[in-house]
Design a protein that fits this description.
By secondary structure, this protein is mainly α. The protein is 75% helix and 0% strand. It has two domains: 53 residues, Orthogonal Bundle (Arc Repressor Mutant, subunit A); 147 residues, Tetracycline Repressor, domain 2 (Orthogonal Bundle), CATH 1.10.357.10. The longest helix has 27 residues. 27% of the residues are buried.
């Protein structure tokens, strides 16, 4: 729904999103009902329909909110003045912010994967998220290329897609599939590995 909200309406919508996040993560996509979310939010099911057309739209809004928080945190270092900070340092900070956010929201990311296989709207949202991440990384690579700091790349879009998907799946297997133990040491290992992938793939100087 796209109607402009009052401050009070936005506050209510945000509280519904928080409640929905709690219930979706707790009960899973299949078992979650709007009645459970309304109970958690302290409102009627009718109030939910004031802001969202159905359960799928509500889940999409929850996912968008969480992923925007992760994306904004990882984008921020790349908006620095690069006369003051090196690209290498900015990339390290960006990668770390992405991983910290992913780890903190691993249950939400698992929910996204689960729902995407069953609902076209959520699938489209998942694809849009991946494309946003790829496009962000493509812009970074283009900036590096313009500054002459990396090797020339024949197919920047394909290169960036491969790099981005590899990083995203490593995070997924680490914190959703539990391939490694969930510890600060693992976070450091994954962050270092991703930095190495970036720098070695691009031939980017790290000093």
């Amino acid at each position: 729904m796209t109607n402009e909200l009052t401050d009070r309406g936005q506050e209510r919508r945000d509280s519904i999103l928080d409640a929905a996040l709690t219930v979706f993560v707790r009960d899973g996509y299949h078992a979650t009902k709007l009645t459970d979310i309304s109970r958690e939010a302290g409102c009627s099911v009718g109030t939910l329909y004031t802001y969202f057309e159905n359960r799928e739209e509500l889940l999409a809004a929850v996912l968008q909110k969480v992923q925007a928080e992760i994306g904004n945190a990882s984008d921020e270092p790349l908006e620095e003045d690069f006369n003051r900070i090196s690209y290498a340092d900015a990339l390290r900070a960006s990668n770390r912010a992405y991983l910290v956010g992913y780890r903190a929201n691993a249950k939400v990311m698992a929910l996204l994967e689960q729902a995407a296989h069953l609902d076209e709207q959520i699938y489209d949202h998942r694809v849009a998220r991946i494309r946003r991440y790829i496009d962000r990384n493509r812009r970074v690579i283009e900036q590096l290329s313009e500054r002459g700091e990396i090797y020339p790349i024949d197919d920047p879009f394909m290169f960036t897609t491969a790099l981005s998907v590899m990083i995203s799946r490593l995070a997924y297997y680490t914190w959703v599939e539990g391939f490694f133990d969930d510890s600060d040491e693992t976070l450091e290992r994954v962050a270092k590995t991703i930095d190495d992938i970036w720098f070695r793939s691009l031939g980017l100087k790290t000093d």
